[in-house]
Task: inverse folding
């Protein structure tokens, strides 16, 4: 099909519009300009060249000029300028519209992927469009920093560019959700998630990253994502150290917290007497935490608490006196340590009321 014939399709009504406007010396109406913009959008969607289309507009204007009386030709140039400008505006707007539509579709897909709000079969079909193959197993890493992040933020763009430059297309998806940075990767490619965690930690000025376990199928992404979120929440409540947390290493905490009432009873029964201490229970709970975290080594626990060994020993003796349990006795240690973990999980005693 000849170029002129292709362009003619997008000039429908254009000549008559020029004749009508020049016949009365008026400017183009809003409806006429909107019609030109719509034709410009259609032409862009058909992947036609703008230069050829502008030439076609000018050629058509010359033919119209020959049909006009001399006085009517005065306003032709201004009318053509209006028409071509509106057409070019529509032409340029079409790709921007397509990009926004693509971004909206991607955001909707990510929401459905992470929250399971769509038919899993349909979700797997849509995933192919964004580079994922949900028939396999996947794991999800979630990073947080001192501020929320969006898709257009330099931090998010920089991490995505680094991951793609390092690994290319490995059927991974990088996105943001609720201000967090997200990486979804096949379960047999832990190096991708490890690299993402390293870059995210650095790019967020020491932010924290959690990695969920690998789970199969479309629903596996949701499961892994929830594990990563829970790991971040646990890290906050338990004051866990380390920039990267793995849900597989934290499975004991959900088990302990599963029966909340039983845990609350254990905490209250075992640690409740510590409220009678001067300064309340919290300093002594912190002492027990440091003591257990240091492997029950008094010197190391004292260093972590910035205390002398003598002061630490006094606190441990006070705990023995109030609770009638000995942190150094293996028979008592498990109960005390479990109660301390429970207190941190339940934010006891602050939330005990």
Result:
């Amino acid at each position: 099909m000849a170029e002129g014939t292709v362009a003619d399709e997008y000039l429908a009504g254009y000549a008559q519009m020029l004749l009508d406007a020049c016949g009365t010396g008026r400017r183009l109406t809003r409806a006429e300009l909107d019609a030109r913009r719509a034709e410009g959008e259609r032409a862009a969607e058909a992947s036609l060249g703008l230069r050829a289309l502008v030439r076609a507009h000018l050629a058509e204007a010359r033919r119209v000029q020959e049909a006009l009386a001399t006085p009517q030709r005065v306003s032709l140039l201004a009318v053509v300028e209006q028409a071509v400008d509106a057409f070019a505006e529509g032409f340029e707007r079409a790709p921007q519209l397509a990009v926004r539509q693509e971004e909206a579709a991607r955001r909707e897909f990510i929401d459905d992927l992470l929250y399971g709000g769509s038919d899993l079969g349909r979700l797997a079909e849509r995933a192919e469009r964004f580079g994922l193959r949900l028939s396999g197993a996947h794991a999800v890493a979630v990073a947080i920093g001192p501020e929320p992040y969006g898709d257009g933020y330099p931090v998010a763009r920089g991490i995505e560019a680094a991951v793609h430059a390092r690994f290319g297309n490995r059927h991974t998806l990088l996105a943001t959700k609720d201000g967090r940075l997200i990486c979804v990767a096949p379960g047999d490619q832990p190096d991708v998630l490890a690299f993402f965690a390293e870059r995210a930690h650095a790019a967020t000025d020491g932010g924290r990253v959690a990695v969920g376990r690998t789970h199969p199928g479309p629903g596996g992404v949701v499961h892994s994502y929830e594990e990563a979120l829970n790991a971040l929440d646990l890290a906050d409540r338990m004051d866990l150290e380390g920039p990267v947390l793995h849900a597989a290493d934290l499975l004991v905490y959900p088990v302990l917290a599963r029966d909340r009432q039983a845990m609350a009873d254990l905490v209250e029964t075992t640690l409740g007497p510590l409220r009678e201490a001067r300064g309340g229970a919290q300093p002594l709970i912190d002492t027990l935490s440091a003591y257990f975290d240091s492997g029950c080594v008094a010197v190391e626990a004292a260093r972590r608490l910035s205390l002398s060994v003598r002061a630490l020993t006094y606190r441990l003796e006070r705990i023995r006196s109030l609770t009638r349990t000995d942190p150094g006795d293996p028979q008592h240690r498990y109960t005390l340590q479990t109660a301390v973990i429970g207190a941190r999980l339940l934010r006891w005693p602050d939330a005990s009321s």
Notes: The mean pLDDT is 86. The domain at 132-250 is CATH 3.30.70.270 (Alpha-Beta Plaits). The radius of gyration is 34 Å.
